[in-house]
Every structure is written in C-alpha cells, then in structure tokens.
Amino acid sequence: MQDTDSINCPIIKDVPTTVFRGKGSFLYNDKNEESSFQITCTASQAYISFYTSLHMLESFKGGTLEGNLEDGRTCKGYLTGDYNRENSLIVSNCSELIIGELQTIKTIATVLLGVYFPYKFSFQYKDYEIAFSKSSTSPEMAHRSKRISGTVSEGNVVTISSNELDIDGVNDLLWDICLLLRPLTASEVYFGYLKCNNQTLIYHKKRMLGKFFGMQSNILESTRQYPDYLRKGLQKLESIDEFDKISIIDIGHVLSTSAACGLLETGLMVLIPALERLGQKEIPVSYNSDSSSVVDLQQFRKFLKDHANIYFEEQPNTFSELQKDAFCKSILRINPWDTAFVKKIQTHLIQNGWTVELDLDKVKELRNSLAHTGMIPKGFSMEEAYNFQKQLEIFLFVHVLDLIEFEGRISSTKDGWAVFPRKDELKEGKNE
Questions:
Q1: Same domain, 325 and 235
Q2: 196 belongs to a structural domain
Q3: Does residue 46 sit in the same domain as residue 170?
Q4: Are 280 and 230 in a shared domain?
Q5: Do residues 370 and 156 lie in contact, with contact meaning Cβ atoms separated by under 8 Å?
Q6: Is 230 helix (H, G, I), strand (E, B) or coil?
Q7: For residue 399, what are the CA distances in angstroms to 139, 140, 279, 408, 424?
Q8: Measured between alpha carbons, how far is 309 from 264 in angstroms, rounded to an integer?
Q9: CB 382 within 8 A of CB 370
Q10: Would 421 be classed as within a structural domain?
Q11: Each residue of 190-227: pLDDT tens digit?
C-alpha cells in the first residue's frame, strides 16, 4: 500500500486573520470605560472582543472605541451588532474601523472575494494605475471551500496607485470594478478592507457584500481581455444612463444566482424576468401601435367595469366601498400581458442585432409555470430547460458587453468542447 504520510495537500482554503491587541476607551451613551481589547480582522470584516462591567452589558450598542495598539498605532471604530457575551466578555462587529494615521495616500490595496484570476495584469484608468495580482487560490479550491465550509475564499489583490488618492473616491472605484466583475464571473464579487500605503487599515462605512458565487469566467481568460473589459467598463459607467447601469447590476446578480443556486428552476425564474426587463427601455407604456386593438381594450375594460357596478348594485353588502373602488381600479389596469411579454423580448433582441431564434412561446410557457407552480412545465425535458437557461445567460451577458462596447471572445461550449466565439457570431447563432 502506498505511503500517504508525506502527502500535504490542503482540501479547503483557510480564512486568513490578523489579530491586533491594545487598550482604549469604550464610549456608549453617557458611559465611558477603559479596557484592553483584541481586534480580529478578516478580508471583509473586523471583530472586537473586550471585557466590561456586568452592569454595562446592555448599554454599549452603537458605542465607539478609541485606543492605541501594542505596536503604537492608533485605532478607532464603531461597535455595530453581532453581539456575543460570555460573563463579562463581549464580542462585536467593529465597523468604520481605522488602524493607523491617515496621511497623503499613494497606494490603496484590497483583496477581492469571489474572483480568482490565474494571471496578474494591470491597466491605466484616468490618473489611476490599477494592478491585479495573481490569485493564490484556484477556482477549484474556492469552489471546494464554499461547498464544504460555506466560506468565500480570498482571491485577487487589487492595488490602486496615484500621486494622491482619496479614500471615498477609491472606494467608489472599487465598487464599480466589482459591479463589472459580477457578470464576467457569475459571482457577486465584493471587497472588504482598504490598506493604505501598506500601513493604515480601513474598513469603510460603505461596504459591499455578496451571496451567490458561480466562480467562472464568461470570456476567454487572457491578460489582454481582462484589462480591456475593465477599462472600457469603467469608462462607460461614467456616461451610460441609469437604466443601463441598473441593467449591469441586475444582470450581475441574475447570472450569479443562476450559476450558484443549484436549482434549474430558480435560475430560470430570475433569468426570464431579467431579459423581459431589458425590453422596457425600448417599448413605451402604450406598446401596442394597433389603434383598433387599443379601442377594443378600452371597450373591454368599460364592459367589465359596467358589469361590476351592476353586480355591486344588486349585491350591496358583498364588498365594502374600499374593496369596490379597488376592483374598479384593477379593471382599468388590465393589459394583455402575454403580448407585452413577447413584444418586450422581441424588441430587445431585434434592436441589439440578434438574429438567432428564441422560441418565445416556450419561454412564456416556462415563465408561467415557474411563476405559478415553481416547477418546469410538463412536456419540458430537463435538457430542454437547461438549454434555455444557458441561452438566456448568453443573451444577458452579451448585453453587458454591448453596453460597454467590448469586443472579445466569449466562453461557451459546443458538443461538450470549450469554444470562444465572438459576439456577432453568437448573435447569428454561430457557436464555433
């Protein structure tokens, strides 16, 4: 039997932590207490533990800390929730934490969670030099760690450099980078601490979190494509309108959910409404240009309202006045939903250059069944539903590429093989 004593292969990724110790003042309400403390920092969160007098246990919610660490640096922060106590020991979240002095800042680094690029690359954006390190965690180990322990492993480190950096401005820039990475990786990528000049540690009050992590790459992995995608995306986020920016945010969430939720039904339930939503920008409220159909709809509403009023007169005690009014208002809002649904998606596909066929009757059938029963409709095979899921994911991701005007090769499969077609090839139904 082979000797396994020398095998040293980690199965899951540990969560790195940094511990600081010090002494300071805890101020909550009108009380002030001196105490030693310990701050435990992870990539996304900081926790503080300390001893306090028993009579003050319920009094420190929303309290503040100001103190000095053993290494001489100052620290200050807020105690915000997740409280635990054992006798007089308190453990709490510590938000808006600053460790060290803030001076002229030339570099800010942070670690991303949910993205694991196997390369290092950098690019210039405005006055910023933005550099991605190679991830020390492989996507395979990140998947395993999430599956076994539920933890999101640390990924690539991003370092932003300039002559003088503003913390709030860099924090907003990192938000935009993460928003662009979410549809690219089908993961709700986020970041935690900011490390300034490789010395001062900050947990910003404007924090980002993620829940679903597909951990994939929807474009060809390349040290050229990644920076090109991010540079163009950041430029476009400055000028696109609110609807399109929300579309990028929404598609990032939807693709992450579809990739990570583990249920085909859940994936389709978020993908179909997301595609339908995109058609709302092109179609006005009065989407039906056929005037005779509009007249027919108005007559139909009037017919229903007249008969409702007759019923209310004949049965005066059946409903309250408030309920009667609500019924009449509901009648005035009636629209042929199926027609609107099809028109929205058709208009979106046509105006964005898609010539590939999408069976909208089948999509509508899927949507109806999932909305009312939460199940794939009878007559649909799992393979057919899965193919719709993959097709809808492509439609949505390509729309993000259209919005930022990115031309590149997209990750796909054909007959079980990895292929990397261009956008125009996918829009024509070619998947080579």
A1: no
A2: yes
A3: no
A4: no
A5: no
A6: helix
A7: 25, 28, 12, 13, 12
A8: 45
A9: no
A10: yes
A11: 998 999 999 899 998 888 888 889 988 888 888 889 99
